[in-house]
Amino acid sequence: MAAPMETLVAKQECSFSRSFDAVKCEGDCQIIYKLRCDISDHLIRFKSGPKDKHVSIPEGLLILYRAGLFTVENATMKMTICDSHRDKLSTQWYRCKRTCAHPLHPKTSKEKPDRGITLAIAKEIWVHDRTITAVGDGLCRSCVERHKKTYLTVVDVQNDIVEFHKVAMNFHEQNINRSEQMVPCSPCFSPATYPSEDYVDEMNPDAADINSSLQIYSSGKFDK
Q1: Total domain count for the chain?
Q2: Looking at the domain assignment, is residue 68 inside a domain?
Q3: I want to staple 15 with a disulfide (CB 3.0 to 4.6 A). Which of 34, 63, 79, 155 is the partner?
Q4: Are the C-beta atoms of 210 and 75 separated by less than 8 Å?
């Protein structure tokens, strides 16, 4: 039986290379839905973790949120990310500004942040006025109160976490089914070679959605 599709290495273009062109693409690409490890401890160190300490945040979801992609769906979950962009959007970033990044922070205020923007706050800002604020950026105490009074739509990040794992599992099961059905029957593939996930995606009508996802859900450039 052929090896599961997830174990096959495929040459893929980083989906974040254009919108985050300040970072040069380097290393191999991973697919977002495969990045399921818990990175909650990293967020807690920046005081940006969820209120419930038992909630596990998958790495792929943090990457999407920090990129301004707040919708978990097939197109965004199938996006690819290279090592350098993964570092920048996942766990190798740091808070380079010592000012509050909340849109409601008065320009004349000199109050310093004492915590970081959480996933829920970042999405609530986006839902309210389509402004992208990176998870982990500084947040002062006064803006926490301003946020509660202004952004009345409360976001439950747990729903996105559940959806992330649900979509990831669906893709995983599809890959296993495809690999089990795959039998080399023509000279196109040698006995030791099987079609890559890239090859499958090219035949999938959803593949084109990946390249346009950043333009649909995000705007601007990552300037960190």
Answers
A1: 1
A2: yes
A3: 79
A4: yes
Give a yes or no: residue 136 inside a domain.
no
Dihedral of alpha carbons 137, 140, 141, 147, sign:
negative
CA-based radius of gyration for the chain: 19
Domain that holds residue 203: 1-94+157-224
This prediction has a pTM of: 0.73
Q: Is 202 exposed, middle or buried (0-12, 13-18, 19+ CB in 10 A)?
A: exposed
Query: Among residues 125, 122, 115, which one has the least CA distance to residue 63?
Result: 122
pLDDT along the chain (224 residues), means of 10: 42 86 90 94 89 88 95 94 92 78 94 94 95 93 96 91 95 80 49 42 46 47 44
In angstroms, rounded to a whole number, what is the distance separating the alpha carbons of residues 111 and 139?
10
Does residue 133 belong to any structural domain of this protein? no
